[in-house]
User: What shape does this take?
Amino acid sequence: MMNPDSGGKPPVGGASAEGRPGGKSRRRRRAKRGGKPPAATAPVRGLDAAISTDAGRPGSSEQSAPRKRKRRRARAGQAATRAGHAANGEANQAEAAAQAAASSVQNGAAEQVAPAKGPGRRRGRGKKSREGRSLQGRPLTAGQGGAKPSGASKAGSRHGHGTAATAKAGHARHGHAHGERSKLPAVPDVLLETRRRPHADDLYAALDLGTNNCRLLIAQPTRPGQFRVVDAFSRIVRLGEGLAATGRLSDDAMDRAVEALKVCASKLASRQIRKMRLIATEACRAAANGEVFLERVTRETGLTLEIIDRETEARLAVSGCSSLVGREARSVVLFDIGGGSSEIAVLRIQENRSSRLANHITHWTSLPVGVVTLSERHGGRDVTPAIFSAMVDEVEAMLAGFDCPAFGSADEQDADPEFYLIGTSGTVTTLAGVHLDLPRYDRRKVDGLWLSDAEVSEMQAKLLSWDFQGRASNPCIGPDRADLVLAGCAILEAIRRRWPARRMRVADRGLREGLLTDMMADDGVWRRTRGRRHAEQSARGAAEMHR
Assistant: This one.
């Protein structure tokens, strides 16, 4: 190894001491090893001062190599720190620019954002105020949003927690590498339509003013043949009270109905309905002052109701229950026990089933008797087995005049084991609720329920064994129906005797559902729904292929 005091060329790879005469004495080296600085050495202030002082000091070749390595490392670390700060500042400024541009686009602002200050200015530390400004400068333009974001921003975008501006900056950053592959296909308008919230134009409304109830239903079409209920209303008004005796609607009954219709008018006014149909049935049909009452309804509520005939009522009942008629069914008798009349339709379904089940009606009838009229004639509060039998006989006599071939006999049931009854009325749903022993009526458990012939007979016998208070205390009957339910059971019993069936299906639906189904089918909304679903599936498939 070369003697440092000789002044020759230093070893390769060591710190250069060339041109520096002399070296440290032994005393100074021992003092350095002992941690004592030489007395002649001035205090070092800063990195540059240390470099200049050490360079002019004689005899520093031994310590210059490790000391210069430390300086180089320090300079490299300082440069990396400055570069990191600069990158973070640019990334945060770019993110602020993207946010400012996104905000201006979203709010429709056309104002020009001020440009950034020049590079000669001292850069900020990447911090931003609440307004999206850098603490060291003005808002950046959208054109500077292509800078690389910081690690936190990239992590947020990667895991879905970043802002929309960060995601846009990421797409701009990778656009040059991926080219056209980074551009996702445009979403069709029809797909956007399906993802929006329900439009007011898609809403349909149906109102049924019957002899006993006033019902409203507002719904939106969903899958073919189905709809989603948006709002509903139902109130017992007893519009046909006293009609059988006087032939006119009483003032109290009309007042109750008008108050309920005001609620319906308020609900309809609060929404933009695409199409509505408001009907009145047997009470207004049979009353001498039915037309006068409807004029009062229009004057006080703004609603215009139409009185439908009995055939239309029967067809609407079938349309409302069409989803409960299975594909395997070939023969069905559907009945609707109302307050003032009862509609019965006989359906024979062939191989070519129509989309509208009402087209398969072969025979229908409308009996001028319902739960209100029958209970008023025979008394519905205290019903004995003899009174119940008299009510059944009266309805059977009405059915005897119905010109319909023998249908539902034991021989025909053997030939068609899928024959069954479908009942849509408060009477049938009440029987189902009592059969299930529900603590509170639940439509979800009742609608579509199957009851065997023996179960129906058992429920009717149980109701007949209860007095008025016992029926009123049942949560599925209540005091409003306690005097009507046995009259409905009498009508049901007459129908079962005319068309015996092994089972019966319960339908908690009726005219309102039929009105909605017909209106939606006429407008072809389900055809549009199928088209939207097909477009959505095509767009999703295209997006998957593009990825």
User: Anything to note?
Assistant: The first helix runs from residue 26 to 33. Residues 1-22, 38-62, 101-200 have pLDDT under 50 and may be disordered. The chain has 21 helices and eleven strands. The two ends are 66 Å apart (CA to CA).
